[in-house]
Amino acid sequence: MSNARDLSKFLQEGGEVDTDTLVVDSTNNRVGIGTTSPSAPLEVNVSGASDALILTSDTGTNGELQIDFNGANASHNSVQGGHTFATNGTERMRILSSGGITFNGDTAAANALDDYEEGTWTPTYGMTGSAATITHLTQTGYYRKVGSTVWIWGRINTNGWSGGSGNVVVNGLPFTASGASSLFGSVHFSYVNAFGTNSFPSAAYIATGGDRFQPIKLPSSDGRSGANTPVFTSDMSNVNFGNDLIFAGSYIPA
């Protein structure tokens, strides 16, 4: 193809360059690069792990945009300060070059959403003193972590408890709590049943730097002193389906 007329004829009639480097399917009005049978108006087929498309401005790599393929994965990469997505000319989302996502023009790394996950965990009764003999019946825990906040839900109960000393705790939180001073997490109970006499937990807190929550009891007086007495091992019940808590809470992870 020595001139523009030759190229025009090539495009109109269909043809190929170097077998499948560039193929024009004039019947279906499709162009293929790296394929002899394009399935779209433009199909680029890259063999193996390679860059499929690179667009570079004349200022060098600061204006570079790449679409890469690595096995079954593809990535869209802009190397100048992250990448933005806009609608009607207004920025709606930005992927920061340092990681994390911001929204509606916000560029502050401190405001970036940099983590999301959800899963299960196993709540387990424990003591701050000597260990008790415990037979757990139900140990159900779920969590969701969005950015710097963890939400937890679950249920725990037993069908056997004997011995032990100290305060009762529930171990196994999915993340260690922040160690920042006075930054306690909180847990509330929607169902409490089958504890010892006058020892029902009313709430719980997650201490800084801990991976467990500490149940506390209702006051034995008129309530003006608040609910701040720990649940002791001696407060626990040995009955079947005893020490039953359904709970939810939130805290800031380390």
Summarize the structure in words.
With about 250 residues, the protein is mainly beta. It contains 1 helix and 20 strands. It folds into 2 domains: about 1-45, no CATH class; about 120-250. The longest helix has 10 residues, at about 5-15. The chain is elongated, with a radius of gyration of 31 Å. It starts with a helix and ends with a strand.
Keywords:
254 residues, mainly beta, 2 domains, ten-stranded antiparallel beta sheet, four-stranded mixed beta sheet, 1 helix, 20 strands
What layout of secondary structure does this protein have?
Layout: H1 4-13, E1 15-17, E2 22-25, E3 30-33, E4 42-44, E5 50-57, E6 60-70, E7 73-78, E8 83-87, E9 90-95, E10 101-103, E11 116-120, E12 124-127, E13 133-146, E14 149-162, E15 168-171, E16 185-193, E17 201-206, E18 212-217, E19 229-230, E20 242-251
Parallel strand pairs: 3-4
Antiparallel strand pairs: 1-2, 2-3, 5-6, 6-7, 8-9, 9-10, 11-13, 12-15, 13-14, 14-20, 15-18, 16-17, 16-20, 17-18, 18-19
* Number of strand elements: 20
Unreliable runs: 1-5
Q: How many separate domains? A: 2
> Helix/strand/pairing class, anyone?
mainly beta
Choose one word for the global shape. Answer: elongated
Strand-residue proportion: over 45%
DSSP helix count?
1
Please state the CA-atom Rg, rounded to the nearest Å.
31 Å
| Helix content range | under 10%
* N-to-C CA distance: 65 Å
The major β-sheet equals: 10 strands, antiparallel
- The helix/strand series, from N terminus to C terminus, equals HEEEEEEEEEEEEEEEEEEEE
Average pLDDT confidence is 85
